[in-house]
Structures are given as C-alpha cells and as structure tokens.
Design goal:
5 helices; 10% helix; globular; 363 residues; mainly beta
Length: 363
Amino acid sequence: MLLRAQLLLLLSLFIAGCATPLSSTYDARVDPAVKMNAHNFPTIQAALNAAPVNAQKPYRIFIAPGDYYEKLIIDKPNIHLYGAGATKTRIHYDAYAGQEYSAGKIWGTAGSATLTLRAPGIALHQLTVENSFDFLHNDSLQPDATERVGNTQAVALLLDSGSDTFFARDIALLGYQDTLYVNSGRSWFDRSLIAGNVDYIFGKGNALFTHSEIKTLERGRANFPHGYITAPSTQISDEYGLTFIHCKLTRAESVPDNSVPLGRPWHPTTQFADGRYADPNAMGKAVFINTWMDAHITRDGWYSMNGTAKDGTKIAFLPEDARFFEYSSRGPGAVINSSRRQLTSDDVKKYTRETILGDWAIK
C-alpha cells in the first residue's frame, strides 16, 4: 500500500500543471455516495450496463474519487471514462493467470485483466487501473514453498480483439508482471505512468507512448535480469509495434544498476495446421526515441526469450533477430554499442504520431 501511495504521489507531481481540466458535462456519473438515479450509478459496471450499445460520439462517464474493486470488460464503442485524478480514482482487482475462478477453470494471462477493452474509440482520463495481486509476497517465497503459486502474470489493462483507436492521458497503470497487454489495434498513451517489473508492456498491438514515465518496480527476491520492460510480439507484416517518444525510464530504489533490459522478443505459442509452436512471424518491434534512461537499463540493452519449437523443445529467440532500435537516448542508462542498434536521422522521420497511428482524431 505504501508503494502504491508513493507511485501515485509521483504521478501527481509528474502531471501537475499540465493536466487538462475535466469537462463539466458528462453523460453519466459513478458515485456510491449519491442516491442512484437515471444518471448516477453506484458502480462502474452499472454505468457501463446503462451506456448505449453503439454510441456514435463519446459517451462520457465521470467516476468520483474512491477505490472501485471491479473486474470490467468494455465492449461498447466510444466509452470515455474520466476519473477525479489518478491519485483519487482507482479501479483495481487481484486476479492472476494461474488462479482458479471456477472448478477446473483458471483465468489465464488475458483473463486476469482488471480492465479489458474490446471495442474502438475508448478513452481513459485521470484515473488509475491496477492489478493488485500480491506479486511481491509470492515472488519472495522459496521456489519449493507450498504456498507459492505459479503463473503469476497479472494484467491491469488489456487491449483485446476489437480494440482500436484507444486513447489514455494522465492515467496510471499499476502491476508487476504483465501490467499492460497491448494485443490489438492502435493506442496512444500520453503523460501517464506505467509501472511493473517483468514484461510489463507486451503484445502485438501498435502502441505509442509519449511524455510518459515507465517505472520498473522491485522484486520479492533478487533476480538477474531483474525484469524486462517490453516483450513485443509484433507481426512481421506490421510496421509499428511499441514506440516510446520523449519518455522517462525510471526505477524503484531497490532496482540495481545494469539489471533491466529494454525488452525481449516474445513469440507466443500458437496453434498452426502443422502443430502448436512459437509463432515465427511474431518479429517483435520496440523503439525508444529521445528517451531518458536511468542506470538500471542493461548496457547490452536487450535480451533473448525462449519459445517452443515444432518438436516441442525450447529454443532461444535472439534480440538481434527482432526489430529493436533506439534514437538519441540519454541518461545514465543510455549506451551506444553493437548490441543497441540506432536509427538514423532519416529513419526517425517515420516516427511521428500521424505516421504511427494513422488518420484518427482524438475526440
């Protein structure tokens, strides 16, 4: 709880003076302290249930300050959620991938998400989405401890099939392993905080991060690598994957120097006509442009990741075979060497918001 409070305080300082004032006009409000009526609801789920099925313009829902323990799926287009501030409005849930939620059924990584989006045109403003599973306690246990659980991926936000043109500004996404699962469509995260430790920004979607803080958190026990910031599974046919422009890569105090790679290539195990094995076309892409990096970033920058071969054995996918690049990195963790490939000044001209995200207007 202390860590969460510290993170949210950092976010409030980070966005102070630049947050856009909230509109005074909303289509619905969520406030448990107010008697329920046609426009006010006691839970976020109730407000979503009452929202139009196919809104053609933004349907704005204001969420009053408070902690909302809810597991949500938004499958209606153009739903916009506004909080009272990322330090005041918090949506959280504590599911993890290996957790059994019904007899013989587990959540899985995607199912663990606190908030899942399955429609276009959704937006989040000035709130926190957190997966509050106690990763640190479990991570601190000995590998043979009887109470230790496996499959501890615990997603805060999932951009699932159907999600596209998603926009987030002045939000916090908090978790540890697999905080943000960007698995579909185009998305833009601006002036936000994303925190975690293992593969905490991952997936095959086209996601742009601007002027945001990407914070690596502590582990329950010492590990090397300590964690990984990204694990893209971008399809080779897609030009853009995870793109960071004018961001800051920060760390919790206990995260060691030279311990966190910028990312590793994820080739998800996929069912094909000739078997189930690592997707060879998932040639992940992650690019860091004009980004400040603290000293926790490894000098080699990137790392390998194992996947399943056709014969069922494990094979290593190497970072040099993925599309990992930097341009004008700075700070204690910024190093130029043969392992950290650089874009040219001509290359970087292709990385504007318009070229990355295409022609869609923020409403």
